[in-house]
Design goal:
The complex is a heterodimer of chains A (414) and B (137). Helix content of chain A is 39%, strand content 10%. Chain A has 16 helices and nine strands. In chain A, helix 13 packs across helix 14 and helix 15 packs across helix 16. Chain A starts with 8 loop residues before the first strand and ends in a 7-residue tail after the last helix. Chain B has one domain: Heat Shock Protein 90, CATH 3.30.565.10. In chain B, 37% of the residues lie in helices and 29% in strands. In chain B, strands 1-2-3-5-4 form a five-stranded antiparallel β-sheet, covered by helices on one side. Chain B is globular and about 40 Å long. Classes of the chains: A alpha/beta (414), B alpha+beta (137). At the A-B interface, helix 10 and helix 13 of A face helix 1 and helix 2 of B.
């Protein structure tokens, strides 16, 4: 409840309930839920068999979760046996984006910095908590979508009916599912389904443990080509390191929020490009990534050392696809906390702050079902809760001596 | 609604507390993002002025459905020539400070640019009072 960056969670009837308009799909609650009650809306792997051609877009992070003895070839072999007909690296689409982002930043006429659209949780955070930056979000699609478009157009070019082509993506987080199923800016993704990375990890690992590494004739990535630049794209600095001018990379939700607040105060000036990622160590720390994020990062660094600077399909990619697609600006969706009418909102806020400062204990224990005493006060003035919810005030009434021994005098009841 | 903040001269670590709190309040009230931006930029600039030049000060923010009124009162050296201080580019900062990227002489003009009504009153060796009004609609 307390990890939610938009305070969208409440405990009601013994369950965590989500305020859907405030949720930004960051998955922080998923990460900490002690009973794993929060699930991710992914697609069943069986869905792939609806299609004749079953393409799996695999991010570099997926491979980097496995210990080195489980080679890329072995992982690919297992995935082919599961029924996929073609495996592609997601980050193939990254290379052409470097030039396009640089051009976009250079030509951008609005206020800078341009904010990367890579992390969907950040895009949603900005919509809800920082609506004034909504038009600074870069209107270019991420590598995943570029790669998806490339393969779709390749199959189309070869005369395959598009109904036969199923493009699937293995996601390291919940936000990317939301980005594919409910994208911003009027973009429609060609991706047909999203597979949970943690589930696929288990399946691959199980197959490896049970059957070991099988020699499989398909054991090569058909389009395995990815560059050293591409493979690092999901890691912190993956984008910013290639952008000309002053570009910064910031990861993890509290850091992103702090930075955006400073930017809003105009404390920070002169930044041309911002790479913001919701997870600590970017996608290496994704909520569906199984291994330790430092080890994942290390393996990506190691894999990157063996790769060329440009991938083999670079020219073909540039011919058929682009990150620049028709997109409308990202719509702000500022959260309505008290009331849409400012006069009523102001009255409610004054009352809520009075409750917070003069009535509630302000120890943010969470036993009432709200993340903070202030959040409970907001719920009370909006008729979503009552003062009865405060467990500490009840406890104080029952035994003030014990409570005062812990919290001192005049702390709970003022 | 009134919010008040005490500001200590020289405490750059806490500079920005008042503007952050006012920003949070206005956002929660659903005030238009462009209005919030003007309030926050003007207030932050004025807040940092107190930290940088005065001994101590107080910020009062009065929020009504129609407008945001800010009053910043400080005890400090005051401004001997306000007209000069209001000229864009005029700065009392030393060459050294300017080389560090501060003291461009845009502080007061920047506050004025973001305000709908701007008042400044200063008594040398006593202190300065700045009043900023920004309309919400």
């Amino acid at each position: 409840m307390r990890v939610c960056p938009t305070e969208a969670l409440r405990v009601i009837d013994g369950k965590a309930t989500l305020h859907p308009e405030w949720c930004i799909d960051c998955g922080e609650c998923f990460k900490v839920c002690p009973v794993r009650a929060i699930t991710v809306e992914d697609d069943d792997i069986a869905k792939i068999f609806q299609f004749k051609h079953r393409i799996l877009l695999v991010p570099s992070i997926f491979f980097a979760q496995f210990e080195e003895k489980l080679t890329l070839e072995a992982i690919n072999g297992i995935l082919y046996e599961m029924g996929f007909t073609e495996l592609c690296m997601v980050e193939q689409g990254a290379d052409l984006l470097i030039d396009e982002i640089n051009k976009y930043v250079e030509e951008f006429e609005g206020e800078k910095p341009v904010i990367s659209s890579y992390c969907p949780a950040v895009v949603r955070l900005i919509q809800v908590r920082f609506p004034s930056f909504a038009d600074q979000i870069m209107r270019l699609i991420p590598p995943l979508e570029v790669t998806a478009q490339y393969y779709r157009s390749e199959y189309q070019k070869n005369g395959v009916p598009l109904d036969d082509v199923g493009i699937f993506y293995v996601t390291p987080c919940a936000a990317k599912i939301a980005a594919i199923k409910a994208p911003v800016g009027g973009y429609i993704s060609p991706i047909n389904g999203v597979i949970n990375m943690s589930e696929l990890y288990n399946k691959v690992f199980l197959a490896y443990k049970q059957k070991g590494v099988n020699e499989n004739e398909h054991c090569t990535l058909v389009h395995s080509t990815v560059s050293s630049v591409g493979i690092h794209w999901p890691t912190t600095g993956g984008e910013a390191n290639h952008i000309k001018g002053r570009a910064l990379a910031i990861d993890s939700m509290p850091n992103v929020i702090d930075f955006l607040e400073r930017l809003e105060n105009e404390e920070i000036k002169g930044v041309g490009f911002l790479e913001l990622r919701a997870c600590d160590m970017s996608c290496c720390g994704g909520i569906l990534v199984q291994d330790n994020r430092f080890l994942v990062q290390e393996r990506i660094d190691n894999l990157g050392q063996e790769l060329p600077e440009k991938h083999a399909l670079d020219t073909e990619f540039k011919e058929v696809c682009s990150g620049r697609v028709p997109m409308s600006p990202v719509e702000p969706r500022a959260m309505v906390k008290y009331h849409p009418d400012i006069t009523i909102a102001l009255q409610r806020m004054e009352e809520a702050r009075r409750l917070r400062d003069e009535v509630l204990p302000n120890i943010d224990c969470g036993a009432c079902g709200a993340p903070t005493c202030e959040a409970l006060a907001e719920d009370i003035v909006c008729n979503r809760a009552t003062l009865e919810h405060c467990v500490i005030l009840h406890a104080y009434d029952a035994d003030s001596i014990t409570i005062e021994k812990i919290w001192g005098k005049k702390r709970i009841k003022k | 609604m009134d919010l008040t903040f005490q500001i200590q001269g020289g405490d750059f670590t806490s500079a920005g507390t008042a503007s952050s709190e006012v920003r949070r309040t206005l956002k929660e009230l659903g005030v238009d993002a462009s209005v919030i931006k003007r309030v926050v930029v003007a207030l932050y600039e004025a807040e940092v002025n107190i930290v940088a030049h005065a001994y101590k000060g107080e910020i009062m923010a009065q929020i009504s459905p129609e407008q945001v009124f800010l009053r910043l009162t400080d005890q400090g050296p005051g401004i001997p020539d306000i007209e000069k201080a209001m000229t864009p580019g005029y700065s009392t900062a030393s060459q050294e400070v300017r080389e560090m990227g501060f003291g461009a002489g845009m502080g007061l003009p920047n506050i004025c640019r973001n305000a709908d009504v701007f008042n400044i009153h200063s008594v040398p060796d006593k202190g300065t009072t700045v009043e900023i009004t920004i309309q919400i609609n």
